[in-house]
Structure formats: structure tokens, C-alpha cells
Amino acid sequence: MVPFHFIHTWYQIIREQVKKKGDWFQNTSLEITLWTLTLMATLQSDIISTVEFNHSGELLATGDKGGRVVIFQQEQENKIQSHSRGEYNVYSTFQSHEPEFDYLKSLEIEEKINKIRWLPQKNAAQFLLSTNDKTIKLWKISERDKRPEGYNLKEEDGRYRDPTTVTTLRVPVFRPMDLMVEASPRRIFANAHTYHINSISINSDYETYLSADDLRINLWHLEITDRSFNIVDIKPANMEELTEVITAAEFHPNSCNTFVYSSSKGTIRLCDMRASALCDRHSKLFEEPEDPSNRSFFSEIISSISDVKFSHSGRYMMTRDYLSVKIWDLNMENRPVETYQVHEYLRSKLCSLYENDCIFDKFECCWNGSDSVVMTGSYNNFFRMFDRNTKRDITLEASRENNKPRTVLKPRKVCASGKRKKDEISVDSLDFNKKILHTAWHPKENIIAVATTNNLYIFQDKVN
Amino acid sequence: MEVQKEAQRIMTLSVWKMYHSRMQRGGLRLHRSLQLSLVMRSARELYLSAKVEAHEPPEVPSSVARSPDPRLHPPREAQAAAEAASTDGEQPCPEPMDTQEAPKAEETPARCAPRPAKVSRKRRSSSLSDGGDAGLVPSKKARLEEEGAEEGESAEVPERLQAPPAQAEGAFPNLARVLQRRFSGLLNCSPSAPPTAPPPPACEAKPACRSADSVLNVLVRAVVAF
After folding, report:
1. Are the C-beta atoms of residues B84 and B114 closer than 8 Å to each other?
2. Does the CB of B73 have a partner CB in chain A at under 8 Å?
3. How far is B152 from chain A (nearest CA, A)?
4. Number of structural domains, chain B?
5. Containing structural domain, residue B30
């Protein structure tokens, strides 16, 4: 348990109580899962821009617009109270990226962290990749809980002793000290992207990773920083002919030769690196023909895919466009196998959403550990979950006012038109400044992290 | 008419957003610019098709006679203004190479814009595509090319009103052209032309709500920025 005085000033932690009892279910079914708030952390000065659990789920990393990374750690389960799941406390905070200035182009490079990806743990230290618009950094986070004491030539505070005062010799020993978590940059992968980096993805070989910007995807080796291979390049010879950009890319979780990238036109391309060095020609193209009845002035914009995520099994992938979440079977290219409407009631409001820039919001999506439920964010601090097996969905709200200790999150409902029932919220009273763009699901348990503009909420299912 | 006003409003809004996005930290975002230009193009097509429908019957006979003059003179004036503005703009602020390609791509306007007075633009856009990668060269040269091409096309007929989309493939419409069309449109319309739709809540400065003069100032500043 990290003592309170280690909680950094970046986050002010307001802890809510969690009900503790009994077993929990591995396979989430939305009907029986009741979510309770276990942690709400307020980022005092900045906007959260990415959230990511590590492979074991013990650590949760958040990146913000100020270039900082804050890592939360789940406290180790108390063996006696084996039914309770540990709470998350701040583990480490560091400044990952600083604002830079590109003198050649007279452009400022934002320090905002666009993505964080964890490497699987190989030794005592943890490693993660964090990226801003132009530079990717590999950070090592290590713990130090012992320090050597009893030097012969140095005092405890570091001053050198006068050698003539040394009358006996002793062997320095390691003694416990207060836990210190250090983050150090081990690799800096820079100068490989002309456009803004939107994704990074670590390969299943755990040696290479890809980084994608608007027009190009590069392949890196984690050990080598001075060169990368360009594997996708969709820049047209004549920029006037530009019609689409890359919006997200990810490696397949099991096949180290396969990756996908999504485009602003709503297509996903699956590429096999064995086919050729430059994967400009896709192996598979996933595209759903547009429904002509839904065609509108803003159709092109809302079909742009903002996030693509493979399922843990590797059989499916999920894409998020402005209004819906689609699940694709990798074996079927002509249409998704499942489509879930996130906030269809916004379809008639696209013009206003264009005016207030909300139509450009890039929502992310995530799978739960067993690939049975998918989750994504919406406006008014709502987030939605869709159960693929029961076809049920639920809308929940991440807000401080509504979450008192010991209560379970109440499902919300938006009333699209007509008579508004009690407890429903009408579309016009939605707050479009309160948006949930980033969500993450623990890889093994029913614990979710939901980021509102500058608050991080961690919910877990109520165990009884 | 309603459609036209709405389209005009969206066009103005898009132009304003594009200008505003260049002021953001981190510079021009390619994806955002692409999306804005898509909307702008759709709005323009909508606006122009609505305008054509409104004006077509009476104008077809007269426009042929009219066209040599309006086409040659206003565009040249506007070009001169835009040129001057852009050269001023480019000297203090050297454009980034990659983002410069974007505004250069704007040289291909949606000038493929079918409009009675600007019919010759379409042809020009294709000739410019070849020179479009003089993206590294300031716009002055490109415009000089246009002027040369334009003079050879004075005999164009308004049949080109319905532009094939192939011409409109340029992702970034020529901002100067759009702005020029915008404010010439505004000048022709009554002062109430700036749309009365409620201002976008997120925008602090809403050109659509100001008088035509203020809009002009904003648009000219935008040209300078590009």
C-alpha cells in the first residue's frame, strides 16, 4: 500500500468506498454486473489524453496534454480478504515529453501524449512506450527499495571522508529504504514522421513495434533508434490528390506479420509483412458499403474511423466511427459481423456538432478480457457497453455528483425524441463539453478506467 | 434559397475553421484539414447547384456574352490582391514543407467550381495540377501560370457548369479562390446575407455574424495566413 504522502500533486485522489464481498464472474454479463466507483482522481492541471492498462492489469498508465505520464498501481490483494480486489494508487509520475519547436517548419510540436503502450514484463522493471506527435520514447520504470549503506570512504550523506580517519574496513550492505519509483528514458525514437503520429502498437514478437502517422507507418526495433523501416506509405505523388489519411494502426495480437490500419474513409486494410517490404497493397480490405438512406452532408466525416482494436483472441477487430462501433470478423471483408449504435440520436444534429467541432472528436473503444463485452465513450460523460452475447447494452455516467459511496452505477437513458420519461435525459440537454474519449478495460478482471476531460474514474464490478 | 444560405454559412464556417486550425499549437493537422475541405467542397457543390437551379433559365443566353469581361477582370483583381497578400504572408512566415503542400494543393480549387462567371477555372485546375508540385514555389508563380491559361480560355461556354468530380479531386480547395468567391458573393448579396443562424457556441469570433466588412477583413487575413 503506497502511503498517502507519495501521492503526487498531479492527481488529487478522492477515494470512494467499495463494497467488498464474495466471488466475481470472469465472463461479464451486463445483466449481472453492477459497477461501483472505486477511485476518482482529478488531474489538476490538464486534460487526459490516453489511458492504458498493462498486460497484467496491475498498472494503469495515463498520459495528458501536458506531456506527463501518471501510473497507478493496484495494491496487492490481501490474501486474507481474497474476495476484495486492490485499489489503485499513484505509483509514479514523470514528464515524458516536453514542448519542442521545429525550426525548419516554424511549428511548435505539442507535448501531448497521444498513446501509451506497455511492453510485457520481462524482469523486475516495467517498460512502456509513450508518444507525442513526433517522437516516441521507451521508458523504464523501476523500483528501488534498498540502498547501500556503510561505505568506507563516504559518509551517509555523500561527503567524502578523510582517508586518515578510516581505521577499520567494513563491507557495505543493502538496507531497506522507502520505496522509490524511478522512470528513465531508455530509447528515444525521433525524426521519423513528417505528419502527426496517431498510433503505436507493439508486435507480438515483443521486439518490434509500429508507429503510424497520417500518411505513413514505420516499423521499429525496440533496440534501434537511428533507423526505422517504412512499411506503408499512402502519400500521393501529388498532394492535391489526397483523399484519405491513416487514422489508426495495430499489430495482430498473435501473428507477428499481420497488422491493420484504418482510414478516414471508413476502410480497414489488413497487411501481411511477408508479402513485400512495402505493404502498400493490402491483403484484405474491410469496407461496408454505405447505406444510401443515411447519406448526408457530413457522411464522409462521420465514417472516418477513430480507433481500431483487435480482440484478445485475434479473430475479430473492432472499429469506432463517430456514431457506431463495428465488429469485424477477419475472415469476412464485405461487412462487419456486428454493429452497435453508440448515439444514433446525434445523426440529426450533425450540423450543430460540426459547428462546435464535436464532430471531429476521436472516440476510442476497448474489449473486455474475454472479448464478450465492448465499451466506448460518448457525451455528457456517458459511456456505453455492449454485450456481444446477449445483445444488451448499457449506458453509464462517470460523474462525481451521481456517485456516492456504496452505490451502484445507475443505467442512463437518452431520450431521442418525443415524450421524455422520468430519469431520461433529452438530447438537447446533453453537455457536449463533457466527453469520454478514452476508456480501458482490465485485461483479466472487471475493472474499467474511464477518463473524462480531467478526471479519471476507476470502476469495478460489485462483488457479492 | 434556404439551401443556398445554409451552404454558404457552412462554407464560411469551414473557411474560418481552416484558418483557425493553422493557429493551433502543433500546426496544421492533415486529417482535420482534409475533413474541413471535404465539407467545404460539399457545401460549395450544394451552394452552386442551388444557385444554378435558381439562375439557370434567365442566365444561359446572357452569360456567354458577359463572360469574357467578368471572368478576366475580377479574377485578376482578386488574384493580384491574393498574390500580394500571400507573398507578404509567406515572407515572414516560411511555410513548412509538408503543410505547404496542402495550401499548394489548394491551388486546385474547388475552382473546378462550376459557376457561370468562373467557368474557365476548371480548365485551369487541370493545367495547374501538372505544376501543382511547384508546391515549394510561392504561389505567385502558380498564379502567373493561371493567368496565362485563363486568357486562352475566354471562349469557354457555361456548359461546364456541372463539373465532373474528377476535377474536384483536389483535397484542399484554393482558399484564396473560395474567399474571393465568398466575399464577392457577399458583396452582391444584401447586407443581411451573413446567415442569421445561431452562432456556433464554441467559436469566439463568428464571421458569419458580423457585417460584410468585418467578414472581408477576416477573410483577407485568412488569405494572408495561407
Report:
1. no
2. no
3. 24
4. 1
5. 1-54
Amino acid letter for position B32: R
Q: How confident is residue B109, by pLDDT bands cut at 50, 70 and 90?
A: very low
Q: Angle at which helices B121-131 and B139-151 pack, to 10 degrees? A: 140
| CB contact at 8 A, A374 and A448 | no
ipTM at complex level: 0.85
CA distance B6 to A212: 37
Contact B168, A242 (CB under 8 A): no
Find chain A residues with C-beta within 8 A of B103's C-beta.
none
- Residue B126, pLDDT > 50, answer no
In angstroms, the separation between the Cα of residue B61 and the nearest Cα of chain A is 32
CB–CB contact A240 B169 (8 Å): yes
Cα separation, A332 vs A268, in Å, equals 12
Compute the nearest-CA separation of A295 from chain B (Å).
12
* Three-state SS annotation for B153-207: CCCCCHHHHCCCHHHHHCCCCCHHHHHHHHHHHHHHCCCCCCCCCCCCCCCCCCH
Whole-number Å distance between alpha carbons of B14 and B178: 11
Cβ of A240 within 8 Å of Cβ of B17? The answer is no
CA distances from A350 to A295, B37, B40, B176 (A): 12, 16, 15, 27
The three three-digit cell numbers of residue A75, written as one number: 495494491
Is residue B8 in a domain? yes
- Per CB-CB distance under 8 Å, the chain B contacts of A297 are 10, 39, 42-43, 46
What gap in Å lies between CA B55 and CA B47, rounded to an integer?
Answer: 12
* Cβ-based interface (< 8 Å): residues of A facing B: 99, 102, 104-110, 112, 133, 194-196, 214-215, 237-245, 247, 264, 297-298, 300-301, 304, 351-352, 354-357, 360
Strand A284-286 to strand A413-415: parallel, antiparallel, or no bridges (unpaired)?
unpaired
The dihedral formed by the CA atoms of B181, B29, B129 and B142, expressed in degrees to the nearest 10: 60
Q: How far is B47 from chain A (nearest CA, A)?
A: 12
Q: Which of A30, A354, A5 is nearest to B17 (CA)?
A: A354
Cβ–Cβ gap B31/A264 under 8 Å? yes
pTM over 0.80: no
Q: Taking the CB of residue B202, how many other CB atoms lie within 10 A of it?
A: 11
Mean pLDDT by groups of 10 residues along chain A of 464 residues? 32 39 36 65 80 96 95 77 71 95 90 97 96 97 92 85 88 93 97 96 97 97 96 94 96 97 96 91 93 86 97 97 97 96 94 94 97 96 95 90 66 80 86 96 94 90 66
Buried b (16+ CB within 10 A) or exposed e, B4-38: bbbbbbbbbbbbbbbbbbbeeebbbbbbbbbbbbb
For residue B41, is it within any domain? yes
Cα–Cα distance between A380 and A392 in angstroms, integer? 21
3-state helix, strand, coil in chain A (%, to 5): 5, 45, 50
Look at residue A322 and give its three-state secondary structure: coil
Q: Considering only CA atoms, which of A317, A464, A340 is closest in space to residue A394?
A: A340
Residue B69 C-alpha cell reads as: 469581361
B10 in a domain, yes or no?
yes
Chain position carrying cell 446575407: B193
B20 part of a folded domain: yes
Rounded to a whole number of angstroms, the CA Rg of chain B reads: 17
Give the containing element (helix H, strand E) for B103: helix B97-105
Full set of structural domains in chain A with CATH? 100-138+190-461 (2.130.10.10)
Closest by CA position to A16, among listed A31, A32, A43, A35: A35
The answer, for B209 touching chain A at a CB cutoff of 8 Å, is no
